[in-house]
Description:
The structure is a homodimer of 339-residue chains. By secondary structure, chain A is an alpha/beta fold. Helices cover 45% and strands 15% of the residues of chain A.
Amino acid sequence: MTTIRDIAKLSGFSTGTVSRVINNHPDVNPATREKIEAIIRETGFQPNANAKFLKQTISSTITVIVKGIQNSFFETILEEMQEVFKENGEEVSVIFLDETENEVDAAEHACSTRKPRGLIFLGGNIQEFRKNFEKITVPSVLVTVDASQLGYDNLSSFTTDDISGAKEAVSYLVRFGHSRIGIVGGSLDETSGQLSTSRLAGAREILDTHRIPFTFENNYAPCRFSMDDGYRATRELLQKNPGITAIFAMSDLIAVGAVRAVRDAGKSVPEDVSVIGYDGIDYVNYSVPRIATIRQNTGELARRSVEDLLLRVSYSRSAVHEKIPYTVIAGESVAKPRD
Amino acid sequence: MTTIRDIAKLSGFSTGTVSRVINNHPDVNPATREKIEAIIRETGFQPNANAKFLKQTISSTITVIVKGIQNSFFETILEEMQEVFKENGEEVSVIFLDETENEVDAAEHACSTRKPRGLIFLGGNIQEFRKNFEKITVPSVLVTVDASQLGYDNLSSFTTDDISGAKEAVSYLVRFGHSRIGIVGGSLDETSGQLSTSRLAGAREILDTHRIPFTFENNYAPCRFSMDDGYRATRELLQKNPGITAIFAMSDLIAVGAVRAVRDAGKSVPEDVSVIGYDGIDYVNYSVPRIATIRQNTGELARRSVEDLLLRVSYSRSAVHEKIPYTVIAGESVAKPRD
DNA sequence: ATAATATATGCAAGCGTTTTCATGATGTCA
DNA sequence: TGACATCATGAAAACGCTTGCATATATTAT
């Protein structure tokens, strides 16, 4: 294996000078630099990252921690983040966690063993951050969960304003004249996440404003953010309350499941039951009928998060908490109620 | 920061002994082990991975290189791989490449800087491997591309038998009585990948067998593996050749686009045009109509790949090339032609 | 009891870098 | 011309860990 010492020997300079060339240190004679660079090119030498980061006590990588990759919405954001990282020539390392694993513990482990420069959390539980995040000292960003209340000065957050997005979704249904509305998704369990709490809160606020009845018993079906679970929950809800004429699904995957559930209950979308989703995944545009939704701006979410982190790891700026605008996407899945 | 030396001091033993405890080396007194482990637990000490792998000259991580994450099929496999890695307590690092980047170069770079124990390539171009893979010396696995012809003894591969899968797909259409069949997906450019070449070859073989006419001009529309491109290509094909009564889409995403394209051309699926896809993503089961497809066994692809790699990095077994069986999934998107 | 073996631990070198400090060469200014 | 700043380089220590070797103690065989 070729090391910096080999390059030193070949070039006739010391390892120190070679190191300075590699790291673009200014104090090196242009001619020397040229010679050494030539040899590095010839030999194809690549410095050993372990040695480098052992010495530097901090590595150059950014670690992204994704909690729940099954969420295809996260996959989209992750993909778009890669692009921004690439533009900036950043080395990224991705860790995937399932729902049972603790994101803050995983982050702490990564920090103590791998010494990343910065951390991005894609998803996660606000409670965990509240309780344990103080352990983390590197600049971090929390995406899709709002950390503005937590007061950590090394934690930015980028989110969609879910309360207001959910309001728009339900208002959309109300505007069409619906007054028997079901909500599908999330969970009553408080720990399940800020996200479903916000979407539920926003939805209920609009229902209340319009004096539209809502009970957990008759108008709500909790479920995970998948097509399968959306299907199951919607079928159950329609069985309990066949009078429902419109459904607000807390994610598009749930909405896709809901559409099939309505059909399998012998009804049709949107004639008998309207459906509106949330997120704005590509598929809504291809489903039959096209599903109305609240589109989150994944591109901006990804770009702003990465750019904020890169700025903060280099120049110690303070953390920010930003809401990225959403867009209401009309679709064929919402129509006036029948009667 | 707490180091192994701190633990040594606290416990009264030497760093060597602490190291042996950490690495479960047998030659250490159970009582000593107990004491040292207690101190490690108390202090929350975690060994510095950079130092460890500097000394060991090879790291414990497996690196997964994903080329083209926009392929949601890969995302599924990646997710399932994570599970198998987790079961085996393996540390994984994922690198995402876009289509313009060279997977073998990226792998070489990762090897020389990060020293992974093993490599998994999710997707990639067979030509690249043929030309450059000799640079790579660590045990590797190529998933979804068949490397059996390449003769590298450190490269296994796990694939679906695409030729035969495509045969089944087209046979399925033929069995319903179709004889004016279009094929959508892939590219005529040979370098675009073994995958589309195989699927096209299999499809054509069945067409030939049944003396069903096929010309690139009238029966084929190349496109990328996305809904958008599938839509565009299908619309163009239907315009050129309105007589087509059935479409074999080379992926399910393409099929989803194709279904919408048929509708937008004023026809319906499956009454006017039947559609069959390939891959077996979850959407096919929720689309209206449900789309018939050839389901690749992502779970097995993921599990066998990871398990093979783990076996090979630990015990130097020889590389294998395995075909994972597919399943034909019937759907509502295929029916008899109208006339 | 002595020798031989097995077991547990310490010592110290070394993995491939970076970086501080010292040094020598060159240039500048009064 | 001497004093001093500037620039380029080398020498060597250090980062935190592993591991081969030497050593000390405990165990067993003779």
